[in-house]
Design brief:
Blueprint: H1 2-22, E1 35-36, E2 39-55, E3 62-81, E4 84-107, E5 112-136, E6 139-164, E7 167-193, E8 198-218, E9 222-240, E10 245-246, E11 263-278, E12 293-311, E13 314-325, E14 328-337, E15 340-364, E16 368-391, E17 394-420, E18 423-446, E19 454-477
Antiparallel strand pairs: 1-10, 2-3, 2-9, 3-4, 4-5, 5-6, 6-7, 7-8, 8-9, 11-12, 11-19, 12-13, 13-15, 14-15, 15-16, 16-17, 17-18, 18-19
């Protein structure tokens, strides 16, 4: 009897465990290993910078582009919490960012000739900034802001030649000086973790040095007030002490099951731009309340390069764009003053336009990303002013032209759609508000008191401009693949 009960117990236990053995076992979810950017690092960088130098105090003034290379090193520290990374960085660069402006006056109305040469050079640049951004996969996309200091040197030289009693009298004057100038700065960039302790980076910085004066001394002396803004693009490499650790203590937020936007991309785009230009009446031929104010418009086409980092549905990125443009416009005015008739024409043309921006947006559905963007815009522009004044028996013709690099702020919004593995299309609107820019115009005048031809220059004190851009483009993403959710 006891054996029978024992056998029944064993059979019952076997029957109870058999269904359990057939149940599926739920596997642990697959979680991609993350990288922890926390720690101290050192590195080196090289790049190129440039911007406008506007001499405002010493007459006849000068407005010119300074540009050149820079190279140096950086040291910093990061802390990562989940997908968020923040830190501090100090960098210093040797620089050779320089430019020269030349203004010449000659002709009978001046009684001789005068040449002025103004030179400015930045030979050192130091920046202390905070960085903050999102880490995803091996990418760290960031924005930065802080203060910068630049060591600058300014030189001025002038030569005049006049005819006195049949003899040419030549006089020269020169002065020079240096200064340390401080400015706020902001920038955007992306860093990519290589094997071991190494990473590479690319970033853009904007230094707004504004309007400040330096004392110049020499055969003459004076205070030189210069208004300036410098744009810098850098490539670099960093070494992290202890390496970039795998699996941070607080795990990053994984991307949602949809198109993965993390990674680098390149693209092409085209569209249309329009806006308004407001210029001072440098010819002094229009009534005081009638300043040149005209519309500009034209095509735009070019390329783009950028990097995104995705955390959940949130995506941030940095993007650089270069666009050739046909944006141009002109102002024509004809007026009569007694027997005199004046015909004046002002023109403006944008040769190229560059944008450096940060983007932030959200993934919508499986294949859409909606985003906003903001940053800096740079435009190389051509400006001209011409007038023909006629009175009975006398005609005076004036023709001036000049070039400037115009800086502005840009904001925009757009939508991007991933239509195939690695490919997406986008539509975007941008608004650009250019900062007021001084421009040096030079040229000739003939007729009347100017004789056969006189050469001289004028300063367009401030030119204001705004732009609206509508763009359509296509991007290729180097590592964009759908996120696949494992199911068990």
């Amino acid at each position: 009897m006891k054996k029978l009960v024992l056998a029944a117990s064993v059979l019952a236990a076997s029957a109870a465990t058999a269904p359990a053995a057939d149940l599926p076992v739920k596997a642990k979810p697959i979680v991609a290993a993350g990288l922890d950017w926390s720690g101290v690092y050192i590195g080196a960088h090289a790049g190129y910078g440039g911007g406008m130098m506007d001499w405002m105090s010493i007459q006849p003034g000068a407005d010119f582009v300074a540009r050149g290379p820079l190279a140096g090193g950086q040291v910093g520290i990061n802390k990562q919490l989940g997908s968020f990374v923040f830190g501090l960085e100090l960098d210093g660069s040797w620089a050779d960012i320089k430019g020269t402006g030349v203004v010449s006056f000659s002709g009978p109305v001046f009684g001789g000739s005068f040449d002025a040469r103004s030179t400015s050079k930045i030979d050192g640049l130091v920046t202390f900034a905070g960085r903050a951004g999102i880490a995803a996969d091996r990418w760290f996309v960031f924005a930065k802001g802080g203060i910068s200091a630049a060591h600058e040197r300014h030189d001025f030289g002038g030569t005049s030649s006049t005819l006195v009693g049949g003899v040419v009298v030549t006089q020269t004057a020169s002065m020079s000086g240096s200064e340390i100038r401080y400015a706020p700065m902001l920038g955007f960039g992306a860093e990519y973790a290589l094997a071991g302790s190494w990473s590479v980076l690319a970033e853009y910085n904007y230094h707004h040095f504004g309007n400040a004066a330096a004392r110049l001394t020499g055969t003459i002396a004076g205070n030189n007030r210069v208004d300036e803004a410098i744009h810098v693009a850098k490539l670099g490499v960093n070494y992290r002490f202890g390496g970039i650790a795998v699996d941070p203590s607080i795990a990053p937020v994984p991307a949602v099951p949809a198109t993965l936007w993390t990674g680098a991309y390149i693209g092409a785009q085209g569209g249309y731009g329009w806006g308004q230009t407001r210029s001072p009446d440098v010819l002094n031929v229009l009534p005081a309340n009638d300043q040149p104010h005209f519309d500009t418009s034209g095509w735009i086409a070019g390329g783009t390069i950028g990097v995104n980092a995705q955390s959940g549905r949130f995506v941030i990125g940095v993007e650089g764009e270069i666009l050739a443009t046909g944006i141009k416009g002109n102002y024509d005015r004809s007026l009569a003053a007694g027997p005199a008739v004046i015909n004046a024409t002002y023109t403006s043309r944008i040769d190229w336009l560059a944008l450096a921006t940060a983007r932030a947006g959200f993934v919508v559905g499986d294949q859409w990303m909606l985003y906003g963007k903001g940053g800096l815009a740079i435009a190389e522009e051509q400006h001209s002013a011409a007038a023909l004044q006629s009175v009975p028996g006398i005609s005076v013709a004036i023709d001036f032209a000049g070039k400037a690099v115009h800086t502005g702020a840009v904001i925009g919004a757009g939508a991007e759609y991933a239509f195939a593995p690695n490919w997406s299309v986008k539509a975007e609107y941008d608004y650009i508000k250019m900062f007021a820019q001084q421009v040096q115009l030079s040229g000739t005048a003939s007729g009347g008191p100017f004789g056969a031809a006189s050469q001289f220059g004028v300063t367009a004190s401030k030119i204001n401009q705004d732009l609206h851009l509508v763009k359509f483009g296509v991007n290729y993403h180097f590592n964009s693949q759908p996120v696949v959710a494992a199911r068990y």
